[in-house]
Write a structure and sequence with these properties.
Layout (H helix, E strand, L loop, with lengths): L21 H5 L4 E5 L2 E8 L8 E2 L6 E2 L5 E6 L10 E3 L1 H5 L11
Antiparallel strand pairs: 1-2, 2-5, 3-4, 5-6
Protein name: ATP/GTP-binding protein
Organism: Amycolatopsis samaneae
Length: 104
């Protein structure tokens, strides 16, 4: 039997070598997190890939280019760009201890 040069044609595999679930395949670069405020998909953005200015909903300060941070969106929304929010890692981790800052 000849060797396949492109096994699975780029399909994502889980840690056990099986095909990922539909959710995992669609968000292979994000991890799921659950909290009192719901289920979220979280992606870490290294500083080298942070090229725009964003406003953190946790502290209402800017996330400047070059600053590592996380992008978060509800787990039940599949691919909705409008629901993504950029947070400082510390602000995301502290969200259960404080409410998001409201801009007047």
């Amino acid at each position: 039997m000849p060797r396949r040069n492109h096994p699975d044609h780029g399909r994502a595999r889980d840690a056990r070598g099986g095909a990922q679930s539909e959710l995992g395949a669609a968000t292979g670069w994000a991890r799921a997190e659950s909290g009192a405020d719901g289920d979220w998909l979280v992606r870490t953005v290294p500083g080298a890939q942070a090229t725009k200015v964003y406003r953190c909903p946790g502290c209402d300060h800017e996330i400047r280019p070059g600053t590592p941070h996380v992008v978060v969106w509800p787990a039940d929304e599949t691919g909705s760009v409008a629901d993504r929010r950029h947070w400082h890692r510390a602000c995301w981790d502290a969200r259960a201890r404080r409410r998001p800052h409201r801009r007047w």
